[in-house]
Design goal:
alpha+beta, two-stranded antiparallel ribbon, 4 helices, 106 residues, elongated, 2 domains
């Protein structure tokens, strides 16, 4: 079965997704950098996955964590959490203790 060729717009979104992957940054960070509508970016990714041009998104379950007291100063971290329902939570510049406490409550 022959698939329908991509439109110029679809090819453009595919190029953006590949660039974000090469730069190793999240889609939201890439969209913000390039002044792209994030919802349109995610919709385009979903359509390209359905067409078989991108690998499907594999959701992994969250694991419970135990947080111990950390010495001061508190280290900061960035994190991207993908929930089972497809919701993506991105945090930047948050101290690790708060990050892990928040993640354990999801």
């Amino acid at each position: 079965m022959q698939t329908k060729p991509l439109t110029k717009i679809q090819q453009g979104w595919l190029n953006h997704i590949h660039q974000a992957t090469q730069q190793k940054i999240s889609m939201s960070a890439y969209a913000k950098q390039n002044k792209l509508a994030l919802k349109a970016f995610y919709n385009a990714r979903s359509m390209l996955i359905k067409k078989g041009l991108l690998p499907p998104i594999i959701h992994t379950p969250l694991m419970p964590v135990t947080v111990s007291n950390l010495p001061s100063p508190k280290p900061t971290s960035s994190c991207r959490i993908t929930l089972c329902n497809g919701v993506i939570v991105e945090l930047a510049g948050i101290d690790v203790t708060s990050l892990l406490n928040s993640a354990s409550q999801l």
